[in-house]
# Entry
Amino acid sequence: MGAGVERTVRHLTRNVEACIVVSTDEPTSLTDAYAFIKVTRLENPNLDIRVVVNMANSIHEGERTYNTLNKACEGFLKFSPPLLGVVRRDTKVREAIRSQSSLLMRFPNAEAAADVEAVCSKLMAPPPGPR
# Structure
């Protein structure tokens, strides 16, 4: 889905069992992610919401970005969406896009590919316990 909390985005997330919120460290991205989580929790308090930090310079920086978002969620919403994963910034992503091919197919050994696979593995695991 696109960024923001417009009616179309909210409407399409009403009938799902789980939602992955993808954010970067950009302030506008974090603000959009927080706003989406806030509105979505009001409309569907039992929805399984998880966070992926994209285009992080490192796993550590991605975790810091998540902690910034999580701190706002805990402080204002009394809710802590779990971190599903961090996808590192990788020049191989741009190369795959330019060649119009999947990152996982074109560069399966790229750092970002490994990160995406780690996120997928977590998605396949049983859902997290009560929050």
In short: The mean pLDDT is 91.
